[in-house]
Design a protein that fits this description.
The protein has 337 residues and is α+β, with helices and mostly antiparallel strands. The chain has four domains: 15-92; 93-120; 125-156, no CATH class; 169-317, 60s Ribosomal Protein L30, Chain: A (2-Layer Sandwich), CATH 3.30.1330.60. Helix 7 runs parallel beside helix 8. Helices cover 54% and strands 10% of the residues. The N and C termini lie far apart (83 Å). The chain is built from eight helices and eight strands. The chain is flat and about 90 Å long. The longest helix is centred in the N-terminal third of the chain and has 64 residues, at 27-90. The strands form three sheets. It has a four-stranded mixed β-sheet. The chain has a two-stranded antiparallel ribbon with strand order 1-2. A two-stranded antiparallel sheet has the order 6-7.
């Protein structure tokens, strides 16, 4: 009986001890751990506040230095103003200073008279600021301020229908019916075509650019619906090189009419870009493939070789407003399923 009682006592004491444990730690140890964590957080907060204080002190010091410089400049300017006032009162000015003073005074008087005149006509300072913005926009689009009214009149006439015979720049149509500018399926230009481009065509384009205050030349290649015999295209590898003059146009091998029309447009555009008469214009090659019939109608299907459809059209226009360009390096690739 005595031995039975003594065996149960340690077990009861062990159970009571377990009730004071948290994750294997005693209450005292748990409290110490909690205090340690709180100290770490407090230390981090104190460090961050110290960094903010240092940064604020640095900015304050820089501001004080700038203020000191401004105060120094103000003192220097005040001294110069006092000196000038003394010279003006005494009349002790050198001829150069006298001439400079008179010139600046005349400019101030003229500016004041101009402002008074504008104010009398109802022009406000806000209006002048808006005019500055307008002038900046005109400059961005390469429009001289003196020519702006004419451009506006032309745009308004075009928008209202107008009655003038030259509201829109004429389209220069170079068809292949008689001259054979290109061999069938080829992008090489004949010598006759190159000579025509460098003389009559270049002169007409330059005249249109000047008459319509334009700066863009679109060279559009058209084809017939005769399938291209080649099955493999290398346009992805050669197109840019041919356009930049690093590759001959003969290196471009299209496999369809869309590529053939574009390659022929590049061949013509390269000749025009090299012409000094068109040095200030941007030449843009384009392809209409076999879709557009002469007379600007869409084809419904016309089989076979049709020479009148193998043509180059040249149009001039003004540059459109620039749009935001997306940086391809910043765009994530999209998977298409």
């Amino acid at each position: 009986m005595v031995m039975g009682v003594s065996d149960k006592a340690p077990k009861l004491e062990h159970k009571g001890y377990n009730r004071g444990l948290i994750l294997g730690l005693t209450m005292a140890e748990s409290m110490l751990l909690l205090v340690f964590c709180l100290l770490l957080v407090a230390a981090a907060m104190i460090s961050a506040e110290r960094s903010h204080r240092y940064e604020a002190e640095r900015k304050l010091k820089e501001a004080e230095q700038q203020l000191a410089l401004l105060e120094q400049k103000r003192s220097e300017q005040s001294y110069l103003i006092v000196q000038l006032q003394r010279q003006l009162k005494s009349g002790d000015l050198s001829p150069a200073d006298q001439a400079k003073l008179e010139k600046e005074w005349r400019e101030l008087v003229l500016a004041r008279e101009t402002l008074d005149s504008l104010s009398a006509e109802g022009v406000k300072p806000e209006d002048l600021r808006e005019l500055v913005k307008v002038a900046e926009v005109l400059k961005q689009h390469d429009i001289e301020l003196a020519k702006a009214p004419d451009r506006v009149d032309k745009l308004l006439a075009a928008g209202q229908g107008g009655v003038g015979p030259r509201e829109w720049p004429p389209i220069i149509n170079l068809d292949d019916v008689r001259t054979n500018y290109f061999q069938s399926g080829s992008t090489d230009l004949t010598k006759t075509f190159v000579q025509l481009l460098n003389t009559t065509v270049a002169d007409e384009i330059a005249g249109n650019l000047n008459d319509y205050d334009a700066n863009i030349v679109e060279v559009i290649g058209h084809t017939d619906e005769q399938p291209v015999a080649r099955r493999i295209s290398n346009l992805d590898d050669t197109l840019i090189g041919a356009m930049e003059g690093r590759l001959p146009i003969s290196a471009v091998e299209p496999a369809d009419n869309a590529g053939l029309g574009l390659a022929r447009a590049i061949a013509v555009a390269n000749v025009l870009k090299a012409n000094p008469k068109l040095k200030n214009a941007t030449i843009l090659p384009m392809s209409a493939a076999q879709l557009i019939l002469p007379g600007d109608t869409v084809t419904r299907g016309q089989a076979g070789a049709v020479e009148s459809r193998r043509r180059i059209e040249i149009r001039v226009r003004g540059r459109t407003a620039p749009v935001a360009v997306i940086d391809s390096a910043a765009v994530n690739p999209v998977s298409l399923h």
